[in-house]
Design goal:
The chain is α+β, with helices and mostly antiparallel strands. The chain has helices spanning about 1-20, 100-110; strands at about 25-30, 40-45, 50-55, 60-65, 70-80, 85, 135, 140-144.
């Protein structure tokens, strides 16, 4: 009976600690070197936490929490001149590119399009009584 009561009390303590309204900071840090490099992080008693480090060129970090379903969620990321790049098991991902599209892209890369010369149209003033009938020369030049 004592083990059962201890188990119930343990569950009660865990539920109380998971309550967002009563959460408090369990751990935190913040460091700056005065030359643009920094790091900071925190963990709350309800399982929410985050950490980040970097400089003016690149930042990497992570945040985590427990979902309402009780699943741990963690997202790591980098941010740099190319944008924000999150990674995590629960983030949506695009479907795979179909094989036919991959083959078509490979073909296009292997066969670059050559520049084509467009015919040059020469415009001449039309003389009264002389209709304009443009012609194209073998070199792509039109003659009137």
């Amino acid at each position: 009976m004592f083990q059962y009561l201890a188990f119930i009390l343990l569950i009660g303590v865990c539920v109380a600690n998971d309550d967002d309204a009563h959460a408090h900071v369990a751990n935190q840090y913040k460091k700056e070197d005065g030359h643009g490099k920094f790091s900071y992080g925190f963990d709350l008693t309800n399982g929410i936490g985050a950490g980040e480090a970097g400089d003016e060129h690149q930042v990497h970090g992570e945040y985590h929490f427990t979902s309402k379903e009780g699943l741990p969620v963690k997202v790591s990321y980098t941010a740099d001149e190319h944008g924000y790049h999150p990674h995590g098991d629960l983030l949506p991902t695009p479907p795979p590119t179909p094989v036919a599209i991959l083959k078509a892209l490979a073909y296009i890369d292997a066969h670059p399009q050559r520049e084509q010369h467009r015919p040059v149209v020469h415009h001449h003033h039309q003389h009264p009584g002389h209709p304009m009938h443009p012609t194209v020369s073998p070199h792509g030049h039109r003659h009137h």
